[in-house]
Design brief:
The structure holds two protein chains of two kinds. Chain A is an all-alpha fold. Chain A is built from six helices and no strands. Chain A folds into two domains: 2-75, NADH-ubiquinone/plastoquinone oxidoreductase chain 6, subunit NuoJ (Four Helix Bundle (Hemerythrin (Met), subunit A), Up-down Bundle); 108-115 and 125-170. Chain A is globular. By secondary structure, chain B is mostly helical. Chain B contains three helices and no strands. Chain B is elongated. Classes of the chains: A mainly alpha, B mainly alpha.
Chain lengths: 170, 100
């Protein structure tokens, strides 16, 4: 019961803040709503027992990425009124119609897959450590060591690329 | 009782909101933020099914998605700053230099 209440409250917060992110006139407001949305998603991860992912979500998304967005909004979006970024009526209608079509399609897939019998849940893995963070770390440094190193390489490349792109030409 | 279908519907709705944002907004920063919303929808799916089948690989992949999202945001915003320095606009309708 408590789980259901937590889920519905968090789901309402996530969807409400997501709508506000998309519809806010001022991009700064969008960024603030994005932080709140990411925090609600982190809370949802906690209810799912994924504490490590929740911590990463708060640190990387709400702490890092959104601050990056805020800096760029402040740097870029000072000269024109926010209304200049409203889409024209026909484009907006077309976009909403396409998004609605995707929603209907995905809902049809969800309903149809619910009618078909679900695959039996596999047995719990036996990892030599206990606790969510320890188990995720164990997996990252044993079975998924190569993808982990590739991800770190990707982040290094992205960092160098961002610095090169944003540097002033001299 | 909260089943995986609930999480599936939640992430589907979140993904659609992000998709609508990508389609309807003209400010490229808001388009980027909508893409982040869509990536979050995928992460909700991964973590929910990780909890459902008692297998932590889903959480590992959610961490990889977060790493890729961070890289995407850094490079995308770097490109955006470089573009803004040249063209003084963030409206994607005016970003048509490579449009055929």
């Amino acid at each position: 019961m408590a789980e259901a209440i937590a889920f519905y409250v968090l789901a309402a917060c996530i969807l409400g803040f997501a709508v506000l992110v998309v519809t806010a006139k001022n991009p700064v407001h969008s960024v603030v709503f994005l932080v709140l949305d990411f925090l609600c998603v982190a809370a949802l991860y906690v209810t799912l027992g994924a504490e490590f992912v929740a911590a990463i979500q708060v640190l990387v998304y709400a702490g890092g990425i959104v601050v990056l967005y805020l800096f760029v909004v402040m740097l870029v979006n000072v000269k024109r009124p926010p209304e200049a970024f409203r889409a024209g009526g026909r484009h907006a209608m077309l976009g909403l119609a396409l998004a609605g079509a995707v929603l209907v399609e995905a809902a049809a897939i969800a309903v149809w897959s619910r009618l078909s019998p679900a695959a039996p849940a596999s047995a719990a893995q036996s990892l030599p450590v206990s606790g969510n963070t320890e188990q995720v770390g164990w997996l990252l440094y044993t079975s998924y060591l190569v993808p982990f190193e590739v991800a770190s390489m990707l982040l290094l490349v992205a960092m160098v690329g961002a610095i090169v792109l944003a540097r002033k030409e001299s | 009782m909260i089943t995986p279908t609930h999480y599936l519907l939640l992430s589907m709705a979140l993904f659609t909101i992000g998709l609508a944002g990508v389609m309807t907004r003209r400010n490229i920063i808001i388009v980027f933020m909508s893409i982040e919303l869509m990536l979050n929808a995928v992460n909700i799916n991964l973590v929910a099914y990780s909890a459902q089948v008692q297998n932590l690989v889903g959480q590992v992949f959610a961490i990889f998605v977060i790493a890729v999202a961070a890289a995407e945001a850094a490079v995308g915003l770097g490109i955006l700053l470089a573009f803004y320095r040249n063209k003084e606009t963030v409206n994607i309708d005016e970003i048509n230099l490579m449009k055929w």
